[in-house]
Hints:
- The protein is built from six helices and 13 strands.
- Strand 12 and strand 13 (236-243) form a beta hairpin.
- With 244 residues, it is α+β, with helices and mostly antiparallel strands.
- The protein is 19% helix and 29% strand.
- It has a domain at 73-205.
Amino acid sequence: DLESHLQRCHQLSVTVLTDHQDLSNTELKTILNSTAPQQYRIRAKLRTYKPQKLYQSIKLHCSKCNSLQEVPGGDDFNFILQGSAITAPNPELHNTSWYDSVMWTTQDQKQRKIAIHFVKHDEMLQQPEDTLLMIEGGTLKEVWKLTKRFKCVIPVSSTEDDLELLDLSAPFLLQGNIKYYGCKRCSTPKPIKSLSSIAAEQRPSWEPTEIAQVLGIELLQYVFVMKFTLVDGTGALNAYLFDY
């Protein structure tokens, strides 16, 4: 567990943080006065590290605009789903040449209308573990139930002409327990019918990168980001860790 490992490092008086056994130790003061890039071996103490909680190290990164953002919480997604459920599914958009639709009304007081659209391949439904479906009017709990059974789930809402993705603050795609997000700045969402091009492939794999591409979404990648402050008595150096 990285967090307990970092705490142990923090407690040790001196920790060798880099390898390079062939190099002699260089003081941080010398490194701070040098021009990059150079390769050094240091002997230093870990003064602080950020963030303090390991889960806060996970961010979303856009390789196109190089932005870093926080991973939205489940409450944000739930709020967007609730907002989209206000608009009832448009029956005119059901049962097209490339998806079959099922609609029902919930038995609770709200009597929500839910529609699920199962994408077909060669005019046939695929096995659940290979199926992409779209859901309108579902709650967070219902969406997660579907991800346990089906390969891909895309939350959508209906307009007069087509199904469309929700606000990009919500994941545009869920696969297993992974939520995939798009960059709001760099994405230009296309109509959902763009997915029919993948359904027409010989063996649709429903890969997130391909789905993002046909839907005009710039896919955000999960990255691991940390900052360490190292000291050795001659100076303090900030070291950043950034990794996919």
